[in-house]
Every structure is written in structure tokens, then in C-alpha cells.
Amino acid sequence: MANVTLLWDKASDRGTLSGGSWVSGLPLNSLQTPDVQAVARSTSASTAHTRFVVDLGTVKPEAVSGFALLNHNGSTASKWRIVVTDDASDTNPALRKLDTGLMNMWVETVVFGSAPWGSFPWDGIDQSRYPGGTIALYFAPSYVIGRYIWIYIEDAANAAGYFQAGRFLAGQTWAPAENAAYGASIRYIDPSEVRRTRGGARLTSPRPRYRQFSLSFPGLTQAEALGTAFEIDRQIGKTGDFLLVMDPEEDGVYRFRRTIYAALSDTSPIAIPNFEEWSWSITAEELI
């Protein structure tokens, strides 16, 4: 089991996006906004049109290790490839710091045994069973530093005739040396309104449900508490966004049920309850 991981310091939001061919009213820079419903849409499903590059600039070196595409419409056959390089055109392999090769954008989504025999999809993928929308996710084995992040999408057979996504994240990840404490919880929040008429009939006003994660970190080092937790509260606060993955190594059918694109419901105290042992907790509310 891998420790809970947060993709929080998003170098891709500080960069400049270009490349491919994108609908003017649904531009590529939509991938840098927290609204996952505001999508960037390619003009066709051609691989020449669905690729893009993030120029991280030259002000300071940017270290990245986590990558995610949220709310994408990739078909079950879609693949993506991530390249981090110092080559603006990505024509020189010697300048690549990371090259993942083509990876499946989808993993199995249906828990085995949760659907009756005969209705269970043979590939294990039900596109409607991604809580919070579709996510393509990759964590590199270690940090890499390069000026350009190239994203290649291969989905030429997409029935929609185009590829679209609502958010792209690439940046620093944090996984505490000591994992979150037992007792971490996940729940659905249902803000729907329910009332009764004078005659006893039950009336509802449905609203979209969203997930909420609560977890605490009782065994942080001083560096983790005042170096990372402090900066997450300071830089993200209640208005910023991040991606939380409870266990990056978990089987996909469970991993994405415990992965959310979220905001903090509030900042939390950083305490030192024991000698050289720091604590911090978060409550993360899903952005949909």
C-alpha cells in the first residue's frame, strides 16, 4: 500500500499551453482553470490535433512528478503519452527527461462481482462508473525537471470526432513518510432539499452529490509540517484545487473511487502534540 498522495503544486498552471488544434470557443487554456466542466476541445480526433505542450518557462526550474487529465471524453481504446523535455519541438530524444510511452487512459472501473453475470463488461470498463468524472493519472517514479511537458493523445477512433478534457494537472506531489492515520473516511454529501407537504407527501429538489474525504496525519516530521502542510494551507487555502489519491498503487477499480479532484473545506491547525512529532488534518470536498 502506497501512502496517500496529493498533487498540489501545479507547475502546469504557471506555464503556457500551445500545440494541436483546438476549437476557438473551447480553447486549450481551459485546462488551467479549476472548472472541470469548462473543457478544451480539439477540432478533430486526429493525433496532430489532440496533442499539446506546456512551456514552463525559464524563471526557475520546475520539478514535476504527477500528471492528470480530468473529465476527458477518451474512448475505452484511448491512449496517452507524457514527455518531459528541454526540447520545444520534442524532436531530440536525447533531451527527454521522462517518456512514458503510450499508456491506456482507462483502467477497469467495475468492481468484480458487483454486476450480475452477463451484464459485467468483458473489458471491465463502464464509462459511467468513474466517480467525479474520468481521470487519466500517472505518477513518475521520481521528480523530473524539464522546460516542456508534451502530452500526446491517440484516440483517432473516438466516436465524438474530437477529444476534450476539462483540466490538466502536472506538478509536485506529496506523500507523507508516515501514512494518514486509521479512521480516514469517505462519504457522499447530498445537498438535495427534502420536505414534506401538509398532506405528508415527500418532495425533493435533487442536487448533484459530491464526495468528501477526511483524514489526519499524526506523525509528520517538522519539515513535512512546516514545509509542505504549511504551504498547502498557505498557497491553496479554501479557494485552490488539488488532486488527492488515497493509494496510488491500489487496483484501479478501487483507486478511482478514492481519488478526488478537490478543495479544502477549511484550513486546519498544525500542532505538535508530542516531542518532534507534528500533526495536521484535512477535509477535502470534491469539485465537480
Describe the structure.
This protein is mainly β. 9% of the residues lie in helices and 39% in strands. It is built from 4 helices and 20 strands. The strands form 4 sheets. Strands 1, 5, 9, 12, 13, 16, 17, 18, 19 and 20 form a 10-stranded antiparallel beta sheet that branches. It is globular. The protein starts with a strand and ends with a strand.
Question: Which structural traits does this protein have?
Answer:
288 residues, mainly beta, Jelly Rolls, 2 domains, six-stranded antiparallel beta sheet, globular
Summarize the model shown:
The protein has 288 residues and is mainly β. The protein has 4 helices and 20 strands.
How many E strands?
20
Question: Strand fraction band?
Answer: 35-45%
CATH architecture verdict of the largest domain: Sandwich
SS class: mainly beta
Helix run count: 4
Percent helix range: under 10%
CATH topology call of the largest domain: Jelly Rolls
Distance linking N and C termini: 27 Å
Shape: globular
The level-1 CATH class of the largest domain: Mainly Beta
Q: Low-confidence parts lasting 5 or more residues at pLDDT below 50? A: none
* CATH superfamily membership of the largest domain: Galactose-binding domain-like
Query: Major sheet, described briefly?
Result: 10 strands, antiparallel
What value does the average pLDDT take? 92
Helix/strand order: EHEEHEEEEEEEEEEEEEHEHEEE
Number of domains: 2
Work out the radius of gyration: 20 Å
